[in-house]
Write a structure and sequence with these properties.
three-stranded antiparallel sheet, globular, single chain, alpha+beta, 451 residues, 11 strands, Cytochrome p450
Amino acid sequence: MNTEHNANHGATADGSPKSKCPFSGAGAAKPTTDVDLLTREMILDPFPWLATVRKEQPVVYLEKHDLWLVSRHEDVMSVYKDMETFSSANAHQAQYDIPPSIVAEAGPDWRLPVDHLLNSTDPPEHMPLKRILVQKFHSILEGMDEWAIPLANRHIDKMVPNGKADLVAEFTWPFVIDVFARLLGIPAEQTGRFRAFAEGWFELTGSSSLPEDRIEAAFRNFLFFERFLTRVVAERRQNPQPDFPTLLISSQAAGAKLSDRQILTNLIGFVVAGTDTTANSIAQVIYALITNPQVLARIMSDPSLIPTVIEEAMRLRCPVRGMVRVTTRETTLGGVTIPKGANVYVHIASGSRDGDKFDHPDQLDPDRANVTRHLAFGAFGRVCLGAPLARKELSIAVNLLTQRLPNLRLAVTQGELQYTQSIIIPSLRDLRIEFDPIADAAPKASSPQAA
């Protein structure tokens, strides 16, 4: 199958042809590997291989993916800092052609609604757009504990009498989706396709070997969600509500330089980036805790450690593996020359386990002094817009789950972790846990408020 990846990434950010020559510079062979990051083993645990790469080939060309892998913390930070050389213009392009059935339904001119998405913009558009979104987004988080904690407790209430649960299906996704339904001002019953849409997005952008039925389903979810949020925006223009779409519309009406298309595509990105990443973050943090029972015991005896432990678990179990950038000019990184128009895979999770930056990087250390130097939420001008919300949801979830599920542990039925296929965000399919059942499911009056 000819892929949209090859079509869209076959040119540089300024439209000039991209070279796929296996050499870089004046006749010098470039560091190359034929490792496939989409194998089951590499999706499950790429970190032993990455540790070797960081030492021997910190910037290396991945032949199977047509990507330049950047693995060291220092080099990842360099990419984040230089937004002009490392463009995000192609960051969210699908790796597949739009299926004929979708073209027939949406029309020949339809494209994925990722244009003007904050994470796909570069200077000079990026920062003015980000300032508008940050101001409006942060304002909706005020007083969040009052309504988000009851949402979390409602799902835990259903779990506690059973003594076991699939945390992903029964808590992380339902809780996060409920939060976003509230922020979007839509009924919970209209969120049934949120998970499939979000996971499909990162499969389309982060995998080159999906089966055709999965490709079509992912594109169809994109089309459905674009139409759904188009209706939401139209309704809010007629009937404003105390929600995020209305805040963006009112900002536009007040004179902010925010186009109709920017409102739509950033609402789409808001949902995708905010649901999949946070649902996976909660699951990965809990997995880190139940596989490190001594750390779990410490936070249960001293909940003030929870914020630091969350950051440390995000460093160790980073839900976002990496992001793609395209070079706007020839550049040198880590002593390696990368040509103009090259696709650069910035491995965030690898940088967050760099032994030159973090002592004993593969251990969960609740006393790590420099834990906030992890890369899970980006850096510099690319710091994640939704980081404050994600941290709030994580704090609520970890506080309540560790308090309300006694003797929390990994279920004996939990086998090898299973993920969706993506080098961007491999989404954890399930996480089976066990705990001592409680007949009275009501949360204690002393339930901790999230920090």
